[in-house]
Structure formats: C-alpha cells, structure tokens
Amino acid sequence: MHFQFVLDIIVLDLNMELIKKILEKFNGLHYGQEYLCLAAEPFRDPLHGYLVDRGIVIKDITRQHLFIGYCPLILAFSSTAIASGCTEISLAFTDKVFPPGSYVPGQHLVASLSLRKIGQFNTDESEIFLFEGRRGGHRFISRFHQFIIQLHNNWYQRKPGNVYLKGNLYKQVQIAYSVPRKISLVTVGAQGLYNHFPTDLHGQASGHYYVISLRHGGKACTQVEQTKKIVLSDVKPGAYNKVYALGKNHMQPLKERQAFDFDTSDSVYFHLPLPKDLIAYRELELENSFHYGIHKLLLFRIRHERLIKAGAAGLCHIHNVYATWRLKKELAGNYLLR
Asked: 3-class secondary structure for the chain?
C-alpha cells in the first residue's frame, strides 16, 4: 500500500508537470521570459496613461506617477498630479494621445485601473499620495489566453519564497509593467561592509524627494533602515544580465567590498562604492517610511545627484503580455533577451 501511495504521487507530479507545459504552450505569449529588458531610449509608440472620470481625460499621468508596490499594487502621485481630496481614482492606458476633456473611445482603451487612497507622505515641497489598486483589466492578449495564464499562476506560483499575486492583482501588475520601469542599483554599507541589489519600484516624487519600495522584513530593507544612507545608481542597458543576477542580494547580509564587482570610485558624500557601467547616481538619506502589504515604502531626501554619461539610455523592463501586444501591432521592441 505504501508503494502504491508513492507511485500515485509520482504520477500526479508527472501529470502536473505535463499540464504546466500545456498551459505554457497555449498561453498566447510570444516571449519565454516574463519580464523583458530594454533600453529606455529609443522605445517608440509607448502607451499613454491618463487620469479619467467616466472616460473623460483629466490629466496625462504617464510620467507623473510612481509604481512602488506589486503586492498589493501601489502607485504614488505628487499633489501636482492628483488633487488632495481624491480618495478614489481611475486610470486609462491608451495607444493614442488624448487631450484633457476628450473622451477615450473603447477601441483605444488598452487597459484600465481603479485605485483607492491608502496614505500619504507630507514633505516641505508637496504631498505624495499613495494609492492601492482595486481592479484592473486589459486587452493585451485574448480573454482565453488571460484565463490560461491565470490558471498557471494559480497552480504553479504558490511556492515557498515566491510572492503569489492573488486573483485580479496579477492583471493589475501586468498593466503597471506596460509602462517601462527603470531598474536601478542600490548600494548600502556600514563599517566597511556592503550590499548591492536592484530595484524597479522607485521614482523621484518631487524636486528633492525620492521613494523606493523594498520588501518588508527583507535583509536589504533592514540594512537600509539601519544605515539610512544609500546610493541609487542608473546603469547602461548592456549590464542587464549582471543586474538581474544581483536580485538574490535582497536577502543577503552585508559583505566585504571585494564580494561585488564595484568600480574603484566612490560617491561624493556618503563614500559608498559605485557600480561599473554607471550612467548617473543619487545619494539618498532616509526621512520617513510607510508599511503596507509586503512593502516598506521609504521616503528619501536627495542629498546629491551626479550625471556620469550624458544622453545615455537607462535600463528598463516591461511585462511579456504587453510585449506580445506590441509584437502583434508590429511595434518595434529593442529587447535584451536573457
């Protein structure tokens, strides 16, 4: 009987692996990787994001929002983009430009998000409003293929160490990554020891303030909160393989400088090591934080900025569903496949 039980488990595992391969074959996605790296420029014919009210465009927020959380989805807006009294907002993502006051017709509405306010940061420059995603929908791929992808997510992403995106949240995240998100490198250090890891959940909230989201309880987050000083570096797109390989460092302790492939130079004020392939960097000092979901949203004051390579494109990535939609629309994609 024990032998039969073991045999049944083996057969079940084999069947689940077969089902996984079938789902992956018929998911409608053109690229094998979930996130595709690219150079920020040139990236032609991007989507346009709008704050809307019942389909009427209020404001273009394509470059006036920060994507800073994926579980749950969290977007940040300055008070110059969103009125302080707003507690619920709707966003529309389109493949055409629409001026304020115009109606977005259905054939050009590629994706939509509804969000509710969860908090804010108050600074001496402006307020920074934090919104959580409530629901999202898109037509990057067919409903059938979206169903297949959701099945794959439900059955195969509930594994230890992985952040499972439940229900509609997965679609919300796919929509958020339809806007190219810059991947930068964080360097933190104390007493001659360092850590060095990538982030794509970040952005400049106003003239002198910057927001970065790190996983609450992770070693990287603890290191940043303890030292309160970091260097955030933008690197050349050609470094994408090295950048992705550094992802494991979110859960690593501080190490000797020699453990990392740093350049020989250091930042001006905090004297933290700088990475190779550097385009620009900021020295940031922690001022405030906000814990929500799995995220710790960290508010920094920008203490120093330096441009190293003028005109150089930075490293970004987008989601596969959007890249597949672009391919079907015959839109160019300067992707860096890993």
From this structure: CHHHHHHHHHHHHHHHHHHHHHHHHCCCCCCCCCEEEEECCCCCCCCEEEEEECCEEEEECCCCCEEEEECCEEEEEECCCCCCCCCEEEEEEECCCCCCCCECCHHHEEEEEEEEEEEEEECCCCEEEEEEEEEEEECCCCHHHHHHHHHHHHHHCCCCCCCCCCCCHHHHHHHHCCCCEECEEEEEEECCEEEEEEECCEEECCCCEEEEEEECCCHHHHHHHHHCEEEEEEECHHHHHHHHHHHHHHHCCCEEHHHCCEEEEECCCCCCEEECCEEEEEEEEEEEEEEECCEEEEEEEEEEEEECCCCCCCEEEEEHHHHHHHHHCCCCCCEECC
Distance CA 82, CA 64 (A): 9
Give me the residue label for tokens 């077969």.
Answer: 18
Full-prediction pTM beyond 0.85?
yes
> Strand 315-319 and strand 35-39: pairing?
antiparallel
Q: How many CB atoms lie within 10 A of CB 212?
A: 23
Amino acid symbol at 229: K
Q: How many CB atoms lie within 10 A of CB 73?
A: 26
User: What pLDDT score was predicted for residue 27?
Assistant: 87
* pLDDT computed for residue 14 by the predictor: 54
Burial of 144 (0-12, 13-18, 19+ CB in 10 A): exposed
**What's the pLDDT at 331?**
93
Residues 6+ apart with CB under 8 A from 32: none
Average pLDDT per run of 10 along the chain, which is 338 residues long?
45 66 84 93 91 96 97 96 93 97 96 98 95 98 93 82 90 98 97 97 96 96 98 97 96 97 97 97 98 97 96 94 96 88
pLDDT of 282 reads 98
Number of residues written out for the chain: 338
